[in-house]
Amino acid sequence: MKIKFYPTLFALVVTVSLSAQKLSRAEKKIVSTIEKNNAEAIDFLEKVVNINSGTLNAEGVKKVGMVFKDAFDDIGFETTWIEMPADMNRSGHLFAETSGSKGKKLLLIGHLDTVFEEDSPFQTFEMVNDSIAHAPGGNDMKGGDVIVLYALKALSDNGLLDDAQIIVAFTGDEESTGDPLSISRKDLIDAAKRSDVALGFETSTGFNYATVARRGASGWTVEVEGKRAHSSGIFSEGTGAGAIFEMSRILHQFYTDVKGEDLLTFNPGVLLGGTFVNYDELTSKGDAFGKTNVVAQKAIVKGGLRFISEEQKERARAKMREIVANNLPKTSASVSFTDSYPAMQPTDGNLELLSTLNKVSLDLKQGEVLAYDPGRRGAADVSFVAKYVDGLDGLGTMGSNAHTPQETVNLNTIEALTKRTAILIYRLINTK
User: Fold this and answer.
1) Cα 383 to chain center, whole Å?
2) DSSP structure string for 320-345
3) What domain of life does the UniProt record list for this protein's source (predicted)?
4) What is the pTM of this model?
5) Cα–Cα distance measured from residue 143 to residue 149, given in angstroms and rounded to the nearest whole number
């Protein structure tokens, strides 16, 4: 295998010298079963899409979880619904497991929640044409969950899961992770510590791509205090610059002095400033009061930071702290950080998994599979387990416009992607 990197674009080309081989007799049976069950899989997807499971709709998330729970029970998995503490305001997680000691021990990751809450006008599965459906969360990521289920169903139907350890972990709060992470991701991390490989089924970035690296995500908040005074005194020795000018300085220097490292981005998502400022963390909403003849007393910015390593994250934070400390006259400022998702780095083990997936795809005559640019992917649950196991992500359904009322899922690709997943799982659980 030859691996070629292009650091700026993080392109990876994997060339496998062996030509595609024929599928084994068992693998052909798997493929045949998936073809037979494909219409049922699409009906199942429509069913779970039509149950609202916005992250804050804890009851709806659990309802979707129970539908999947019954399906995993039917194929012989031991299922558990793991409740989260009530004060976290999040639903629980569904885990389904088989026990064994043969081959690689697998952790298959999905999530039950979507970004579309109960008050969203986008609620139902609706066909656009014979292959595309508008579907809230159908692409991100109930379609990926269905691929996991029907790949495992094909293996189970053919008696090919004997003595294999497979843990399916469908979290209930991926789109807005419950706090603290030490509780909301404890079960996922514990499962990873008992596994060798993690496969994530977030939405695919293209039929011939998989994810070997994802950037981490961190939140940041800058709060500024200025001296409240009549605007005629702005810039004077006694009044100074005011909170909004100081916040403007800080954001401008973030842009000029922190920006520049490959795969490092940071975004100020909301800005409030004036005489009085209120911001609600739970709803991400706020308000400000101020007058043009009053120097602003308060300003606040909430933002996000994306990074490919802990070292890169800490370098960015150090620069931000330095900038925030260099205040304009009569102002003060502070910056605080909250960790959300760690980075998933492109390890040798991840690249070897990509090679295995690539071989599966070639054997299925589905074409070569390449690594996707992590700069174009958001964070995901697989990142929490990346330090413990080798992993791939982006193995879910194809579609477009995820997280928007125009979200679609491409139903024509589900069968092929389920075949790819099932054969990959089969080969991994038969590999030492």
Assistant:
1) 8
2) HHHHHHSPPTT-EEEEEEEEEE--B-
3) Bacteria
4) 0.85
5) 10
- C-beta separation of 161 from 98 below 8 A: yes
Q: Span 2-214+344-428: which CATH code?
A: 3.40.630.10
C-beta separation of 249 from 328 below 8 A: yes
Could you count the other beta carbons within 10 Å of the beta carbon of residue 276?
Answer: 13
CATH fold, domain 217-341, is: Alpha-Beta Plaits (3.30.70)
> How is the chain split into domains, by residue range?
2-214+344-428, 217-341
Q: What is the 8-class DSSP label of residue 215?
A: -
Provide mean pLDDT across the span 263-278.
97
Element (H, E) at 290: none
What pLDDT, on a 0 to 100 scale, did the predictor assign at position 19?
A: 47
Task: Judge whether 2-214+344-428 and 217-341 match in fold.
Answer: no
DSSP codes, 49-101: HTS--BTT-HHHHHHHHHHHHHHHHHTT-EEEEEPPPGGG----EEEEEE---
Instruction: Tell me the two tokens of residue 429.
Output: 């659980």
Give the pLDDT confidence of 386-415 residue by residue, as tens digits.
999 999 999 999 999 999 999 999 999 999
Mean pLDDT of the chain: 93
